[in-house]
Design brief:
Layout (H helix, E strand, L loop, with lengths): L2 E2 L16 E7 L5 E9 L6 E5 L13 H6 L3 E5 L9 E2 L7 H15 L4 E6 L1 H12 L4 E7 L12 H12 L5 H7 L7 H8 L9 H9 L9 H11 L6 E6 L9 H7 L9 E3 L6 H19 L2
Parallel strand pairs: 4-5, 4-7, 7-8, 8-9, 9-10
Antiparallel strand pairs: 1-6, 2-3, 3-5
Helix pairs in contact: 2-3, 3-8, 4-7, 5-6
Length: 302
């Protein structure tokens, strides 16, 4: 498996993102390995808050939340998925599958050996992170589900998702920063747009970002539909506290929070919320509020 690695110089002088990089090697599933980057701030022996990003962002998405967690005494960890951020980027779109993404993060989490995790997951961070919860529930103390889903293809994804998927496959220029800009309510600055584009010096680095939208299980016979059904079977038994915090302006994920609230026992009685003035990338729109609500959730569910 061939891969590219974005030069460190691309990540210099990014506003509010001066975290020391950390790396682990994960099995690439075909006899080699890939280097995965993660932010790891706060006391190493403190309870971990694991923040997982999605498409087409990277750990930069959580830059305003990480200090809030560390200032509260927690260990804040934010990995870059393979193909994103400072992590290695396989060059072929066929290198990326849903199951490989789960395997890569399973390898990383096993090496990190984290327990008592509070998971904060958004977009593909949920599609992958919730699979980790189902496979290793004993590692997770609680879960914050933010603008994400765990689709099986048994229900339609809706016209907003179809429009996004079509755009992602047909646009001549896949501008990650402008995509994040378009998915926010408050809008981000030109410097922040540039920071989201930093991992991609050119199109050859974007195979993973281009491929993600077509990996979402949108039909019952999708290659990952059965694995997601199996994950749901586990999630439906969990008393692990689940909190849903969704952006009011997120058209793609509108209403999805109700499935988690209805089907997962640990979601009963939690302080779920629809956050006003927040789009799909609610970490940009209301990041401090999202972090503070997560801290309150942690306090309420010791």
């Amino acid at each position: 498996m061939k891969y590219l690695r974005t030069a460190d110089t691309r990540f210099q002088n990014l506003k509010d993102y001066d975290f020391e990089p950390h790396y682990l090697w994960v099995d690439n599933t075909v006899g080699g390995s890939l280097r995965l980057h993660y932010v790891d701030e706060g006391p190493s022996d403190a309870a971990p808050v694991l923040m997982m990003h999605g498409e087409p962002s990277w750990s930069y998405l959580y830059r305003h939340m990480i200090p809030i967690f560390t200032n509260a005494g927690y260990r804040a960890i934010a990995p870059d998925l393979i193909g994103f951020g400072r992590s290695d980027k396989p060059t072929e779109r066929s290198d990326y599958t849903y199951e490989r993404h789960v395997a890569w993060m399973t390898s990383w989490l096993g090496q990190m050996d984290l327990t008592g995790i509070t998971l904060v997951c958004q977009d593909w961070g949920g599609l992958i992170g919730l699979r980790l919860v189902a496979a290793m529930p004993d590692r997770f103390a609680r879960v914050v589900v933010a603008n994400t889903a765990l689709p099986t293809g048994d229900q339609p994804m809706g016209p907003a998702f179809a429009k996004w998927r079509d755009y992602s496959q047909t646009t001549p220029e896949f501008n990650a920063g402008r995509i994040v800009y378009g998915g926010t309510s408050q809008k981000i600055s030109d410097d922040e747009v540039a920071a989201y584009n930093a991992p991609y010096p050119d199109e050859s680095y974007q195979a993973g970002a281009r491929q993600f939208p077509v990996l979402v299980p949108d039909a019952p016979d999708n290659p990952s539909s059965e694995a997601n059904r199996a994950a749901w079977a586990v999630l439906k038994t969990l008393e692990t506290p689940f909190l849903t915090l969704f952006g009011a302006d997120d058209k793609i994920m509108a209403g999805v929070e109700k499935a988690f609230q209805k089907l997962i026992p640990g979601a009963a009685g939690q302080k779920h919320a629809i956050l006003p003035d927040a789009g799909h990338f609610l970490q940009e729109d209301v990041g401090p509020d999202l972090a503070k609500r997560t801290l309150a959730f942690m306090k309420d569910t010791p």
